[in-house]
Amino acid sequence: MKIKYVILAGMLYGTTLGLQAQVLPYKNAKLPIEDRVVDLLSRMTVEEKVGQLSKLLGWEMYEKDTRGIRVSQKLKDAVKKQHIGLLWATLRADPWTQKTLDNGLSPREAAKATNAIQRFMLDSTRLGIPLLLSEEAPHGHMAIGATVFPTAIGQASTWNPRLIGDMATAIARETSAVGGKNGYGPVLDLARDARWSRTEESYGEDPYLIGQMGQAMVRGFQGERIGEPDRIIATLKHFVAYGAPDGGHNGGSISVGERALRHHFLPPFQKAVKAGAGSVMTAYNSIDGVPCSSNAWLLNDVLRKQWGFQGFVVSDLLSISGLSGGHSTAINGVEGAAQSITAGLDVDLSGSGYGQNLLDAVQQGLVDRSVLDQAVARVLYQKFALGLFDKPFVDENLVDKKVATTAHQELARQVAREGTVLLKNEGGLLPLSKHIKRVAVIGPNADNMYNQLGDYTAPQATGKVKTVLDGVRALVSKGTQVEYVKGCAIRDTTQSDIAAAVEAAKRAEVVIVVMGGSSARDFKTSYQATGAANVDTGAKVLSDMESGEGFDRVSLDLMGDQLKLLQALHATGKPIVLVTIKGRPLNLNWADAHIPAILDAWYPGQEGGLAIADVLFGDYNPAGRMPISVPRHIGQLPVHYNHDKPKHHTYIEMDAKPLYAFGYGLSYTDFAYSNILVDLKEGDNDFSCAVSFQVKNIGARDGDEVAQLYVVDEVSSVVTPVMQLKAFERKFIKKGEEQTFSFNLGKEDLKVWGLDGQWKTEKGRFKLLVGSSSDAVKLNAILELKKDYLF
């Protein structure tokens, strides 16, 4: 989008269109969007322009009581005094917002609320500019009644971008149905330190896998173009390098150079921008001493000039204020506002970072009027593209047909199935027989619905979320007795009853133990202004929450009495299946050495219990793969598979390799790889390298296989990773049958940021490694380029 508004703003259409049929040009849907933006800008005051960049907390903007639903006085005041242009999380419900199933909004009520808000904007403001309503939507719309899908780390474990695209389409449909037009997500951070509290929100450690998932989410949210029915615009988070903070501290600084940024951290965002993302959110952290929210190189040079990004950039909550706060790079809020908008940050999430600060900065000459106009133009363009000026209201009668449908529930179950990773299956303990006489289901996550949903989840109605206990009871035969004992909590040790759990195990033929972690917020937890939870170690009864925003950790050990419970159950001698439900990799060394079967389900969402049971009892053959390496010890961090050369050497105390490698995952069947073929065709400006091979299901069950292609650059002008994922595909293969996998590589896949500060693909030899994980190479070949390729 290029808008030539500066010179023409006051005169365009004055002689050509006038006010034909009393329709102002910016309200004329037949005109090009660029022209409508120019016209509207020409009619706005400086105060209205500044206000258009303020995004306030939305859940305070409606009132609900016995008389109905209407706009709040707070919204009226904000519109009158601040001329606001956007709202965030209007329909959000959780302990931080203090919105419950009682005082929050059902889907139909949500549609009424957003319609009331838009009606107020059209009828009670000078120009009738509608609000853009942004909603949290990384694994489902964070609103009462919406479908809850697995969190991002579980989505990535599917290694199935097509499925994740379908999921994003469903999320967009539900969000749009109730008035949300902008979804926060996908999160494209490389999770390189599992101590980081928001690991669950990421797609793992690999830029290629993250990029594929990010593209799928953007296309699922937005469709082929912004403004399609039942779609929303995506907001890419968090730009950039937020997921590898020093010490694992959420929002902390990161020590990384430009080459590492370009090789690893920036590519997922570039792919999502190329897919058409409408919005990007800046990260809280600084890079090389420059906060991301005032980093002109990132926002103007890289994002816009080099990548051609056409949308708007939004701050994370209060990150503009953080310039004069935690970062201390601005003397006050006015200077902070000037730094941010000049650097290319358009929208302030909070309403306090810009607002009066930005107005003062403009009036004091710290911000050029053209910079302000460009930021406003970017926001207005998206509003026009979304159709907000032409169709600002949603159909309240269609909400029930679009939100929480049976199809979406089935989709949530399928994502959870495909994202479940079989880590161990000694002696073929799994799948279990449905006709087992007695099974014990034990553990703090066996029957706790909120513990399987992850952070950024709304309150749930009773019975909506299916736990593992529910799933087991639903699948076993009528004659099977299922006994449940919690045994212990995730963190609190004052209410453990390990003895009861042991007795239940002794009575059972097999024991299913469900433990791990929790991101479940409760109404006793206190929260920071940013929404991150405060860690309260002095509470008499500790909450289960040990993950989720704000809950960084110093170790990855199972907390509370969980390991003690697992060891006591193991001592009974009964066959044990461990199911982990959690938001980050945890220390499973003891379990791996002693427990015969282990399933990792991450946070599997509302249908997770049924999906896990499908895998446990063989209705679904697992094929999930790890999107992140699982360390043996905290001292190994960072332990990502694609670290830069040279190869790691062994520690004195233990192997340097992770417990479970990136890409790892087992199946109930076996696959054989064969016949790798490499067909290279070099051209003047690019090359095409086709890599094909066969995979045969040699086991006794039908199942999916996730074939992965890794590349090693043998000699390069700059240091490259020891290996790097470049392609993958998940395919269903019937027992006894064979499938052909085909991948294609070009210069884009093998490029490096050279010593001269330019991209190039260098001539030489590249190893091609094909296998079922990064540490299970089945086939290899050589690709040799005879010339360099420039960009």
From TrEMBL:
Segments forming a coiled coil: none
InterPro entries per the UniProt record, alphabetical: Cellulose_Degrad_GH3, Fn3-like, GH, Glyco_hydro_3_AS, Glyco_hydro_3_C, Glyco_hydro_3_C_sf, Glyco_hydro_3_N, Glyco_hydro_3_N_sf
Top-level taxon of origin: Bacteria
Keywords in alphabetical order: Glycosidase, Hydrolase
Single GO term (MF): beta-glucosidase activity
Residue ranges of every copy of the Fibronectin type III-like domain listed in the record: 705-774
Matching Pfam families: Fn3-like (PF14310), Glyco_hydro_3 (PF00933), Glyco_hydro_3_C (PF01915)
GO biological process: glucan catabolic process
Family: Belongs to the glycosyl hydrolase 3 family.
Name of the molecule in the record: Beta-glucosidase
